[in-house]
């Protein structure tokens, strides 16, 4: 009987306050849409880093045959076989715990396997280049990608080495932009959450104030404090639940339209978040929205429904 009464009171309150409840639902929807977008962006960064960082290598570019800005290549001649062997010995002796494999790529291999794929005619900046214009390189696969600085410090400045490059440097600017976007989204989401909490509290207070006579009568007949409060708390929780569900549906639609059906087909070399990622964060959004609503409603009711 008590449960039926509470549910009946909740339904009555929902019917009486449809405009305000729609406002709470809309603000909750927008707030948790931004929170979800922030979580998805961070998941995208984590996914991309995990995939790319496992694949990228440290490239030791050897001195080319010709001019170079590196002091190590002042002689203007390509790295000799003796210098290359010495570098491989250094890698094996000093970096054996950090480097899992070393691959030497000759100028001819680089020209045929990489350069011609990017420039089929061999033309670059108005010149037609050949294998003789390329330079050799050592490709190092690291056991721990974070140890790049150690490898760079050991190999930079040695004879025959023009430059040591970590391929992660290519992706860091992209990650920096995405991290800033995540931070901006998170800040906007935080503001919207505050607005949602305030609006929820205001709505519940107004609902309680409009039914103050009913709650007083309930007190006189011996209704417990929580029996009186619970319908109002459920009122806010229902609005928050609906708003959070809408935000999850919107995130799913955004991922499908802009990522699955567009970006994933246009740029195939990047691993993207999927509907599975949305499913993982959806419970967090729903539970978070309901909890915030319950807390805001409970605090707001203290003014009108003191024990």
UniProtKB/TrEMBL annotation:
Protein name per the record: Cell division protein FtsX
Keyword Membrane: yes
Keywords: Cell cycle, Cell division, Cell membrane, Membrane, Transmembrane, Transmembrane helix
Transmembrane segments: 21-40, 181-201, 237-259, 279-301
FtsX extracellular domain location: 56-164
PANTHER family attached to this UniProt entry: CELL DIVISION PROTEIN FTSX
Cited InterPro entries: ABC3_permease_C, FtsX, FtsX_actino, FtsX_ECD
Family that this chain belongs to: Belongs to the ABC-4 integral membrane protein family. FtsX subfamily.
Quaternary structure and partners: Forms a membrane-associated complex with FtsE.
Function: Part of the ABC transporter FtsEX involved in cellular division.
Membrane topology: Multi-pass membrane protein
Coiled coil start-end: none
Domain ABC3 transporter permease C-terminal: 187-300
């Amino acid at each position: 009987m008590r449960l039926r009464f509470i549910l009946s009171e909740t339904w009555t309150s929902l019917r009486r306050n449809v405009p305000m409840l729609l406002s709470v639902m809309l603000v909750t929807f927008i707030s948790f849409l931004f929170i979800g977008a922030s979580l998805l962006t961070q998941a995208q960064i984590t996914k991309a880093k995990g995939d790319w960082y496992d694949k990228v290598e440290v490239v030791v570019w050897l001195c080319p045959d010709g001019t170079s800005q590196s002091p190590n290549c002042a002689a203007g001649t390509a790295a000799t076989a003796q210098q290359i062997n010495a570098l491989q010995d250094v890698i094996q002796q000093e970096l054996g715990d950090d480097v899992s494999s070393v691959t030497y790529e000759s100028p001819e291999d680089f020209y045929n396997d990489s350069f011609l794929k990017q420039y089929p005619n061999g033309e670059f900046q108005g010149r037609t280049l050949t294998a003789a214009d390329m330079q050799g390189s050592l490709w190092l696969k690291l056991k721990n990608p974070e140890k790049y600085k150690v490898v760079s410090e050991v190999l930079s400045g040695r004879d025959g080495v023009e430059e040591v490059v970590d391929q992660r440097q290519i992706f860091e600017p992209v990650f920096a932009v995405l991290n800033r976007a995540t931070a901006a989204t998170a800040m906007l989401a935080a503001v919207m959450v505050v607005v949602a909490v305030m609006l929820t509290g205001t709505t519940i207070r107004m609902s309680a104030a409009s039914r103050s006579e009913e709650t007083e009568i309930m007190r006189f007949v011996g209704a417990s404090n929580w029996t009186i409060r619970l319908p109002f708390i459920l009122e806010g929780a229902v609005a928050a639940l609906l708003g959070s569900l809408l935000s999850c549906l919107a995130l799913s639609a955004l991922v499908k339209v802009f990522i699955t059906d567009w970006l994933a087909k246009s740029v195939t070399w990047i691993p993207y978040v999927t509907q599975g990622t949305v499913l993982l964060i959806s419970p967090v959004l729903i539970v978070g929205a309901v909890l915030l609503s319950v807390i805001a409603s409970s605090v707001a009711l203290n003014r009108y429904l003191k024990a």
